[in-house]
Design a protein that fits this description.
This protein has 261 residues and is of the alpha/beta class. An eight-stranded parallel β-sheet has the order 7-6-5-4-3-2-1-8.
C-alpha cells in the first residue's frame, strides 16, 4: 500500500510553531519517524502557519530533504505555493492536488509531467464536493480522459473521491466503497485510488478504531493509497494485513515488517 504521511502540516501545533520559529529539528524528527514507520511519501503542507506561504513551503521542503530522501507530496490548493515547493524539491515528488475540472487538469497535468511528478486529482468541480456516487465517478472519468489526452502515465495518477466525516453524513462511507469499486473499471491500467483517511474520523471519539475499520473495508473495495497517520501502528498494521489477505502482499511470519521495508 502506498502511504502518504500526514504530520508535516501547519495545522498541527508543533509544526505550526516550528514553521514560525524556523525550528528545523522538529521537522527533521517528524520526517525521520514517519519514514521509519513506513511512509511512501511525506505530505508537506504549510496550512495557515505563515503569512508568506511560498517561503514557508520552500523552507519545509528544503528542511525535510535535509533529514530524509523519502518522496514528498507538495500539498496546497494554491498553484503558486505548489510551484514554490516544486522549485526546491530534490526528492521524488507528488502534487497534492488538482480539482477534477478540465481547466484545472489542463494546468496541473502538464506541471506534473514537467517535474516527473505523481498527481492527486480530486473528484470535485465548481459545484463543490459531490454527495453521490454517480457524480464522483463522472468526474473521475473526466480525470482519466484528460490523463490519456495529455499522455501522462496512469501509474502516476491518484484519484481522491474525497471522504467526508462519518459524523456528518453516515451514508457517505458506503457511497465511497462503491465509488472505489467503479473507479477501478475506468481504465486499464487503472489509476491509483486514494483518500485523506483522517477526514473520515474528524470530530469523533473513536478516531483510531474508525480509521482502521474504514481502511480495511476501503482496501477490499480497491483503495491502494491513503494520506494517514503512519505513526498509528495499529492503523498501519490493519492496512498491511488487509492487503495480505487479498493476496497483494506475500505472507510470512514477518509480513508486517517486510511491508514497511
Amino acid at each position: 500500500m502506498i502511504t502518504i504521511a500526514e504530520r508535516i502540516n501547519g495545522m498541527f501545533l508543533d509544526v505550526r510553531k516550528a514553521i514560525k520559529e524556523k525550528n528545523a529539528s522538529v521537522i527533521h524528527e517528524l520526517a525521520k519517524k514517519q519514514t521509519e514507520a513506513g511512509a511512501t511519501y511525506l505530505d508537506i503542507n504549510v496550512g495557515t502557519a505563515a503569512a508568506d506561504q511560498h517561503d514557508a513551503m520552500r523552507w519545509l521542503v528544503e528542511t525535510t530533504q535535509e533529514a530524509v530522501k523519502t518522496p514528498l507530496a507538495i500539498d496546497s490548493q494554491k498553484l503558486d505555493v505548489v510551484k514554490a515547493g516544486l522549485e526546491v524539491a530534490k526528492n521524488k515528488v507528488m502534487i497534492n492536488s488538482s480539482q477534477g475540472e478540465p481547466e484545472a487538469l489542463d494546468i496541473y497535468i502538464p506541471l506534473a509531467q514537467e517535474h516527473n511528478a505523481a498527481l492527486i486529482c480530486l473528484t470535485m468541480n465548481k459545484g463543490g464536493v459531490p454527495q453521490d456516487v454517480d457524480t464522483r465517478v463522472e468526474i473521475a472519468a473526466t480525470i482519466v480522459s484528460k490523463v490519456l489526452e495529455h499522455g501522462m502515465d496512469m501509474d502516476k495518477v491518484f484519484i481522491d473521491p474525497i471522504i467526508l466525516p462519518v459524523n456528518v453524513d453516515q451514508k457517505q462511507p458506503g457511497y465511497m466503497l462503491e465509488v472505489f469499486s467503479q473507479i477501478k473499471l475506468l481504465s486499464d491500467p487503472q489509476p491509483h485510488i486514494t483518500v485523506g483517511l483522517s477526514n473520515f474520523s474528524q470530530g469523533t471519539k473513536e478516531k483510531s478504531l474508525l480509521n482502521r475499520t474504514m481502511l480495511i473495508m476501503a482496501v477490499a473495495a480497491g483503495l491502494d493509497t491513503a494520506l494517514l497517520d503512519v505513526l498509528d501502528q495499529d492503523l498501519m498494521n490493519a492496512g498491511i494485513c488487509a492487503e495480505m489477505i487479498l493476496n497483494k502482499q506475500i505472507y510470512s511470519d514477518s509480513f508486517l515488517k517486510a511491508a514497511r521495508s
